[in-house]
Specification:
The structure holds two protein chains of two kinds. By secondary structure, chain A is α/β, with parallel strands linked by helices. Chain A has three domains: 233 residues, 3-Layer(aba) Sandwich (Rossmann fold), CATH 3.40.50; 187 residues, Rossmann fold (3-Layer(aba) Sandwich), CATH 3.40.50; 66 residues, no CATH class. Chain A has a six-stranded mixed beta sheet with strand order 6-9-10-3-11-12, with helices on both faces. In chain A, strands 18-21-22-15-23-24 form a six-stranded mixed beta sheet, with helices on both faces. A four-stranded antiparallel beta sheet of chain A has the order 2-1-4-5, with helices on one face. In chain A, strand 13 and strand 14 form a beta hairpin. Chain B is globular and about 60 Å long. Chain B has a domain of 220 residues. Classes of the chains: A alpha/beta, B mainly alpha.
């Protein structure tokens, strides 16, 4: 590649200010034709702001944007699409009950007279699939398709609008390891056909696998642009966070004690009264971390909600410390030694409009010393907050700051502080580090291992294979509501877990018949 | 305003500023409504200045004016508290009117039918009966919401009609005043022993209303029950997660909310009307919605809001007499106030107030099945 080539996309000295925040501070970024350029950074580093500027959702305060060497202004997504910039969002923008072809043309429908030309739409799907070697069935209904294929439809949608620059926003978050590999193949095929790709992520392994160049952002600034050959995970993590990060959790071998959670033939329904958890058996003992691995949407959410009393149990039994628990009673569980880091911290874990102090007593507000008779004891609540904020390193100007104005990592620390400040026999942690930055992940992992070492049992539910692999002592793989295998962490590798998560039979993957858990 | 029970000790001025800022929309709405009201008066050929000064004189010009204003404000404070209290749990109690009617007629019944009680006690018993009647009527929509998922906005509206019809029937049938010559629907006059006193120009009911506002604030901000109510209102999912009994809290909140409305009706009966007579209670409950919104659903904000509406009612007669402006103009102004508070974007745009902060917003109604 020559030095004076024109870039498919280039931004120069982009500045974007929000009240109190410099979201983009003189950001320079360029995208060569036909490359995969990864944009790496923690939450709040300014990646999303930059992409929203490129896609016309924000207007930069300063700076210039060039497409194919020509200076442009992008005032709306409409402008962006016209300039050949396509965006694939993390959450798909598809109509679930429409076919692939119908979704593809949505917003740019070919017409014949007054009516929709569906034949032309189908043909467009076929043509595009062929041109970019992306296999999709035009008449399939979206909701019947696996997530990986839905994502392909999103990409096709952008290509149908003649995108030459594709922005993929955290595209691997919802995929199985196998689907991730397929996505990478697709990305290669696209770049060979002249499409340039901006790949936004916070996963270091993926970046090193697929990217031609990597730009790292931190606190609104570009820290540097590197080639994957020049760096490794540790270096990238250090660039992102600004200090050395321990990526591997340090933990000693587990010393399991007596069982603290026993689950027998548990059946749980989802909102539509379909069976989401299908005769699950599980046991968690003191001093061990049991990881539940699985692609999102295979019943983990319903399992966690049932175990924490938020969702009715249809059949089966749950014993906490050897005793059967009353149905749908979170307070009983809280009072009998269960701590719960919920999957959705903003929906279940916090009251965003409350102060940190109030959030820290959300589960114990009615007990002394936080209550005296009918009244709340302000002094004790304040004292508790000051102690926990310090002990759990919550970064906040004050304990009277509302939880909603904290960063994701600090919100999670508030939850961890609250849940860990009670005597805990069993911790149920559901996606405890989702969406958090590397530094916070490191911290929360350390705390979970500490909890284990103090003799609590831990049930860790996570869609992140790395998290499961590094924290769990035993791993249960969940697929379509069933636990399809339970294995010791050291006896299984990533590929095997990936296959199990995708539904391959345990006997094939592990080479031996699996005894029931 | 962010929900706060643990007060921020960072000095009074920033707090005061925030408080004033949070009331800038209601104040702007009142101002805008008065301006548009003035334009209407001018267009209709009268003097807006004369009308408004006459209104103010009628409301605050002398002791009698003050007494009228306070008497008119009293039931509005109670119904405003009822609506505001339910708001804190995320419930929109449109049924204050029905609850108030039951409170009013029950107090009247205890007031005329129970004999032989000493004065203070009789009044207290009648008040309590009114409160309980209102509260029980509020338990119905609470239970319906909890056990069947029926939205409280719909059920309270329907229950208002039932309450109006039923109290009309009682006042025209079993509880009708049978004094020879009476042809209107009303109960007999309550005994003197059940009447609430007025000290000079200060009605006892108004003092009760102030105590009620303080009680509502204390309950919400200082008690564990209040913490539960506010948590259910702010985030029912988190409330359930934390082990709170959301269903119980919803019913209890509706009952307490309706207790306020019931007392409002009882105070009107025992302090002003002296019996139950349907026309006297018209709209007192509905106006509680305006009062609660103008007061930012803050128990102490309800007091000035109710007094503003009360003053407009108390002074409208004098205005009609002196400035020859129909008293109905006060209804127009009041409706405009509600309009501008509800459509707060207009006021924010005119006064250049930044958008509502998280937690500062008042959700008028949550969607179907959102709990």
């Amino acid at each position: 590649m020559s030095e004076n080539q024109t870039f498919a996309l280039e931004v120069r000295d982009i500045v974007k200010r929000f009240p109190g925040v410099l979201a983009n501070d003189h950001v320079n970024f360029n995208l060569r034709k036909g490359e995969v350029h990864a944009l790496l950074g923690e939450n709040g580093a300014g990646k999303t702001t930059l992409m929203n500027i490129i896609y016309g959702l924000y207007h930069p305060d300063e700076g210039e944007i060039f497409v194919n060497g020509r200076k442009v202004t992008i005032d709306s997504p409409h402008d962006a699409i016209r300039l050949g910039i396509g965006m694939v969002h993390q959450h798909f923008m598809l109509v679930p009950v429409f076919t692939v072809a119908e979704n593809l043309i949505l917003g740019a429908e070919p017409t014949k007279g007054l009516s929709l030309d569906l034949k032309a739409a189908r043909q467009a799907v076929v043509d595009l699939s062929q041109r970019y070697a992306l296999e999709v069935e035009p008449d399939a209904i979206i909701e019947d398709l696996p997530v990986g294929v839905q994502q392909r439809v999103e990409i096709l949608k952008a290509l149908y609008r003649e995108a030459k620059v594709l922005v993929l926003d955290e595209p691997t978050a919802v995929l199985t390891p196998q689907e991730v590999e397929e996505l990478f193949v697709i990305m290669r095929q696209l770049t060979e056909r002249g499409v340039s790709i901006i790949f936004i992520t916070h996963k270091l392994k993926e970046v090193l696998t697929i990217a031609d160049r990597i730009t790292v952002m931190r606190r609104g600034r570009v820290v540097g642009t590197v080639r994957p050959q020049e760096v490794d995970e540790a270096k990238l993590a250090a660039m992102m966070v600004g200090r050395e990060v321990v990526l591997q959790v340090e933990k000693s071998p587990a010393e399991p004690g007596e069982p603290v959670l026993q689950v027998r033939d548990l059946v749980v329904e989802d909102e539509r009264h379909l069976i989401a958890v299908d005769h699950v058996n599980l046991e968690v003992r003191r001093g061990e971390v049991v990881g539940v691995a699985g692609v999102q949407g295979n019943g983990q959410t319903e399992l966690a909600e049932a175990l924490t009393g938020l969702r009715p149990i249809r059949e089966g039994q749950m014993l906490l410390g050897g005793k059967a628990v009353p149905p749908r009673n979170p307070r009983y569980l809280i009072e009998h030694g269960m701590a719960h880091i919920p999957e959705d911290r903003q929906k279940h874990g916090l009251v965003l409009s409350y102060t940190i102090a109030d959030n820290l007593v959300l589960c114990t507000y009615y007990k002394p010393p936080f209550a005296r008779g009918l009244q709340r004891n302000q002094a004790a609540i304040v004292e508790n907050a000051e102690k926990l904020v310090q002990q759990f390193d919550v970064r906040t100007p004050s304990i009277f700051t509302t939880a909603g104005s904290l960063s994701g990592g600090n919100q999670q620390k508030v939850i961890v502080a609250r849940e860990f400040s009670r005597p805990v026999d069993l911790l149920i942690a559901n996606q405890p580090t989702r969406g958090l930055d590397v530094g916070s992940i490191e911290y929360i992992h350390k705390r979970i291992v500490q909890m284990r070492d103090q003799g609590a049992g831990v049930l860790l539910i996570s869609a992140e294979l790395d998290e499961i692999m590094s924290l769990a002592d035993r791993i249960a793989v969940m697929f379509r509501g069933k636990i399809v295998a339970t294995v010791k962490a050291e006896e299984v590798n990533r590929e095997q877990l990936g296959l199990l998560m995708a539904g391959s039979p345990a006997s094939e993957v592990l080479g031996q018949p699996q005894p029931a858990a | 305003m962010a929900e706060k029970t643990t007060q921020n000790p960072q000095g009074w001025w920033p707090q005061m500023k925030r408080l004033l800022l949070s009331f800038s929309v209601p104040l702007g709405a009142v101002l805008l409504a008065l301006i548009i009201g003035a334009i209407i008066i001018e267009v209709s050929g009268a003097s807006a200045w004369k009308a408004y000064t006459a209104l103010a004189k009628g409301a605050f010009g002398n002791a009698a004016g003050w007494q009228r204003t306070l008497e008119k404000s009293t039931p509005l404070i109670f119904s405003g508290l009822a609506v505001a209290f339910a708001f804190k749990a995320g419930l929109f109690n449109i049924g204050a009117q029905g609850q108030l009617l039951f409170g009013a007629i029950t107090a009247a019944w205890v007031g005329f039918a129970v004999h032989g009680l000493p004065p203070g006690l009789h009044a207290a018993v009648a008040l309590a009966a009114g409160a309980v009647a209102g509260g029980l009527y509020g338990a119905i929509p609470g239970a319906l919401k909890t056990y069947t998922g029926a939205h409280e906005v719909i059920t309270t509206i329907m229950l208002n009609y039932i309450a109006m019809g039923f109290t009309d029937y009682l006042a025209n049938g079993p509880l009708k005043d049978t004094t020879p010559g009476n042809i209107v629907a009303r109960t007999p006059a309550i005994l003197d022993s059940a009447k609430l006193p007025t000290w000079g120009w200060l009605p006892f009911g108004f003092v009760l209303a102030l105590i009620g506002a303080g009680f509502a604030w204390w309950l919400l901000q200082r008690t564990t029950l209040g913490f539960e109510i506010r948590t259910v209102g702010q985030n029912p999912h988190a409330a359930r997660y934390a082990g709170m009994k959301v269903a119980r809290t919803v019913i209890l909140t509706m009952v307490i909310s309706a207790l306020f409305a019931g007392i409002g009706g009882a105070v009107e009966t025992q302090g002003v009307v002296g019996r139950y007579e349907p026309g006297f209670n018209a709209n007192l409950g509905f106006d509680g919605i305006t009062v609660a919104l103008l007061g930012k659903t803050n128990p102490f904000g309800v007091i000035p809001a109710a007094m503003l509406l009360g003053a407009m009612r108390a002074g409208s007669n004098v205005m009609q007499f002196k400035a020859h402006v129909a008293q109905e103009i006060t209804d127009v102004v009041q409706a405009l106030m509600l309009f501008f508070v509800a459509a707060d974007m207009i006021v924010r745009w005119l006064l250049r107030i930044r958008a509502a902060e998280e937690g500062e917003k008042i959700t008028l109604s949550t969607g179907w099945g959102s709990h």
